[in-house]
Amino acid sequence: MTIEPHEFDTGTILGFNGTTEWALDSLALEDALWLPREEQLRTLLGDAFRSLTTAGDGQYSVECEFGGSTAPFVASEIDASEFTAGEPADAYAAAVLALMAHSAASVIDDPGR
Questions:
Q1: Strand pairing partners for 73?
Q2: Residue 48 in 3-state DSSP?
Q3: Which residue from 29, 43, 91, 97 could staple onto 75, CB 3.0 to 4.6 Å apart?
Q4: 0.85 cut: is pTM over it?
Q5: What does each of the 113 residues of the chain score in pLDDT, given as a tens digit?
Q6: CA distances for 40 relative to 24, 36, 64, 70, angstroms
Q7: DSSP string, 1-42
């Protein structure tokens, strides 16, 4: 199936093409939600990404380095120093959110940056 954006005066509509049994023919762009794949999340981490490991209990841990400090992210709670997840993509997502929070805090602490 392909998804094609169609520009109209009223806005962008995403058209779903390639399958006759698909019940949804089109969707307004503002109603769409992008869920990134595991490799896209890893790419978003960039140079901060260090490793993905598994624990014996089936949980995944993403380790990143933010501003010189290495921190494990085992994905579940954004406010915690360690995050746990049953899926690698969820661990990566928590690390991306933490990286975004770290980046925002750095800008707030040093606005001239």
A1: 62
A2: helix
A3: 91
A4: no
A5: 788 899 999 999 988 877 666 566 788 989 988 889 999 999 998 888 888 889 878 999 888 877 655 555 444 333 334 566 999 999 999 888 888 887 776 556 556 65
A6: 26, 6, 16, 21
A7: -EEEEEEETTEEEEEEES-SS-S--EEEGGG------HHHHH
